[in-house]
Write a structure and sequence with these properties.
Layout: H1 51-70, H2 75-80, H3 84-87, H4 92-95, H5 101-117, H6 122-148, H7 160-166, H8 183-201, H9 207-227, H10 230-236, H11 241-255, H12 260-281, H13 295-313, H14 324-353, H15 358-392
Helix pairs in contact: 1-5, 1-14, 5-8, 5-11, 5-13, 6-14, 6-15, 9-11, 9-12, 11-12, 11-13, 12-13, 14-15
Length: 400
């Protein structure tokens, strides 16, 4: 997931060498290559938005959606009335690779969170994350719970107590039934934010501290995997750490493309990340998941995620500066939150009730969820995000 994680000026001309500091961005990827400058920052500076990163986030979200709608069994098979493998015999195995959109999200999140936390005090970083994550999340929890409580909907809502716990985003470690299936990725994002805030933002971000954080976290995650200790696994996330760390390394590359230490962080993260992706996804034991994905395709998709963020970091995609990508990036998070469970309802209505053909239903469900995401963005995120940020930072300007 996200990040779930997390989110109009023309890009500066690219020049080799160090980048000037990017302005901290609370909600969206910002910053672009510029003239050589010092590695440390002296204060927030406005920077162009990396719209290509918004586009990549939408691609990752759509990958996950097609996986949930056509690349696995389980509850979605109930919505279709049969296995998606029977409805999309030539495409279901391709859709099964869409779950790797989560790993791409995590790489993007590492990039964006490092950019957001650089030069920002802890309180501001905390306020930006809370204001970015919770408004749409709360709305999605309420909406899914309400829809599933309708008598004609096939799926049962969670208990009122469990629904209330879900509002904290801490339901998974508490063993509480989840309202949103995708919220496990938000739990991973929260742990990443906590680690980054504690070891980088709190003492003050600089290159040396970020490099040390990446090295220590990556090594500790490997040790945790070998130790097989549940507490270490929860804290250090060995399976997902390489993707967050790879994104952080790519932000260092964005600041200075000649930083070979940063390139080394990216390379090691990619090597370990592809291992975990293949190990976990080649043949999942859960029968609801389509098995026997090809390992070289998994490696290729993980590589695409790293390479795409690298191309953005280096400025090679600065030509993708279309304004509609900003809207696409804004829709990604609410779309990701609501698409799975409410997508089941949409598929059941379009296919089971209206009798539309499978491909029309597939793209129709995606379109309906994008429309709902736009409503959540306009009616929930747009008014509430700045208000929450101002409430948490009453003496500061709610920018970003």
């Amino acid at each position: 997931m996200t990040s779930a994680p997390a989110f109009p000026k023309s890009p500066s001309p690219e020049t080799p060498g160090a980048r000037p500091p990017a302005a901290p961005g609370a909600d969206a990827p910002q910053g672009s290559p510029g003239a050589p400058g010092p590695r440390s920052i002296r204060g927030p500076r406005p920077a162009p938005r990396l719209r290509a990163l918004d586009g990549l986030r939408l691609i990752a979200a759509l990958m996950v959606a097609f996986y949930h709608y056509g690349g696995r069994d389980g509850e979605v098979a109930e919505a279709w009335g049969t296995s998606p493998g029977e409805l999309f015999p030539a495409s279901s195995q391709l859709f099964a690779y869409g779950c790797l959109g989560v790993q791409i999200f995590f790489v993007i999140s590492g990039f964006v969170i490092c950019m957001s936390g650089w030069g920002r005090p802890l309180r501001s970083f905390f306020a930006s994350r809370v204001a970015r994550l919770f408004p749409a999340y709360w709305a999605a929890i309420i909406l899914v719970t309400a829809v599933f409580a309708l008598p004609w909907v096939a799926w049962e809502a969670v208990s009122p107590s469990d629904a209330l716990v879900n509002l904290t985003m801490l339901q998974q470690p508490l063993g509480v039934e989840r309202v949103l299936g995708v919220c496990w990725t938000l739990w991973a994002e929260l742990r990443f934010y906590a680690l980054f805030a504690l070891f980088v933002v709190l003492p003050g971000a600089n290159r040396s501290r970020v490099v040390l954080f990446c090295a220590v976290w990556l090594l500790s995650a490997v040790v945790a995997e070998g130790a097989n200790q549940p507490l270490l696994d929860i804290a250090l996330m060995p399976e997902y750490a390489p993707f967050f760390i790879g994104g952080i390394g790519l932000y260092l590359v964005h600041r200075d493309r000649r930083d070979m230490t940063a390139w080394g962080i990216v390379a090691v993260s990619w090597l370990i990340g592809q291992h975990y992706a293949v190990d976990r996804l080649w043949h999942p034991p859960n029968p609801d998941f389509f098995s026997y994905r090809m390992s070289y395709v998994i490696i290729a998709i993980v590589t695409f995620g790293f390479a795409a963020v690298a191309a953005i970091a280096l400025g090679y995609l600065r030509w993708a500066n279309w304004r509609w990508l900003t809207v696409a990036g804004a829709l990604t998070y609410p779309f990701y939150l609501v698409h799975e469970h409410l997508g089941w309802v949409a598929i059941g209505a379009l296919h089971g009730t209206l009798g539309l053909p499978p491909w029309a239903v597939l793209f129709g469900a995606v379109g309906v969820m994008l429309g709902l995401a736009w409503l959540l963005y306009r009616a929930v995120e747009t008014p509430l995000t700045p208000r929450i940020r101002r409430a948490l930072l009453p003496s500061a300007r709610a920018g970003g």
